[in-house]
Design brief:
It catalyses: mycophenolic acid O-acyl-beta-D-glucuronide + H2O = mycophenolate + D-glucuronate + H(+); S-hexadecanoyl-L-cysteinyl-[protein] + H2O = L-cysteinyl-[protein] + hexadecanoate + H(+). By secondary structure, this protein is α/β, with parallel strands linked by helices. The protein is about 35% helix and about 20% strand.
């Protein structure tokens, strides 16, 4: 794996990232909530890009992974700013960008994609979770967050409970997207497991309806869970990304 570099932002934030140069649209992987660039899906996309001569960017949101800061200060707006700052700071021969967003990263993917405009070459969502501060949080918990309290939920992926901080929740409510059309015209591919217990697969179907793009495809994995990190899931992800960035002759083959 490429060594970690750091980008200093003007407000004092420092963002850890890994970048492999190449030719063609840059692939940017956006992790999920409390996740980082060391995950299996991010690593697989990075290695596929490097082997194919494509530029690829991995990074950690501020307060996550190798990026310093306090996680409780993180918001969708801040983390989207960090995506755009990294894309703007790196030298890329082709200015087109393909964003790959996992879970909450799928929400950041949409916000960053809207900001990129004509630079956006495509989106790939993995159990994308736009608006989860609205549909994914009980009304009683919303009232606590509105009063400035942090809520904690059981974490199926680790021993520590998952916090939702009031600042993150309020910012999410200010960035809801599923209530109206989403002005993105680039190709979009959405992958979602039908056994996802965290993000209902109906969210990807709603998202497909809201996107303005005519080139939107939803792939449902009947036995897939939220993470979609099995070998077959990752191969599907790599083929999906390759279809957006590689000539047909160079695309990742299916497993035999």
């Amino acid at each position: 794996m490429t060594s970690t570099s750091f980008l200093d932002l003007s407000d004092g934030r420092t963002i850890a990232y890994r970048f492999t140069p190449g030719t063609g649209p840059v692939i940017v992987f956006l992790p999920g909530y409390m996740s980082d660039m060391n995950g299996s899906k991010a690593a697989a996309v990075f290695e596929m890009a490097r082997a194919s001569g494509l530029p690829c960017l991995l990074f950690d949101y501020s307060g996550c992974g190798e990026s310093p800061g306090y996680f409780g200060e993180g918001t969708l707006t801040r983390w989207t700013q960090e995506v755009l700052a990294l894309v703007g700071a790196l030298e890329m021969p082709d200015e087109k960008v393909v964003l790959v967003g996992s879970s909450m990263g799928g929400w950041v993917m949409l916000l960053a994609g809207l900001a990129l405009g004509d630079r956006l070459a495509g989106l790939v969502g993995i159990a994308a979770a736009p608006d989860f501060t609205d549909w994914g949080i009980a009304q009683m918990d919303k009232a606590m967050l509105a009063d400035g309290e942090t809520i904690f939920e059981d974490n199926p992926y680790g021993p520590e409970p998952t916090p939702t901080h009031p600042g993150f929740w309020a910012d999410g409510q200010a960035n809801l997207l599923l209530e109206g059309p989403i002005a993105i015209d680039a190709p979009v591919r959405l992958l979602h497991g039908q056994r996802d217990e965290d993000v209902p697969f109906d969210i990807s179907l709603q998202l497909a309806e809201r996107l303005r793009s005519a080139d939107v495809q939803v792939t449902l994995i009947k036995d897939g869970d939220h993470r979609l990190s099995r070998d077959g899931d990752i191969q599907l992800l790599l083929r999906t990304v390759a279809q957006l960035v590689l000539p047909r002759a160079a695309q990742v083959p299916s497993e035999s």
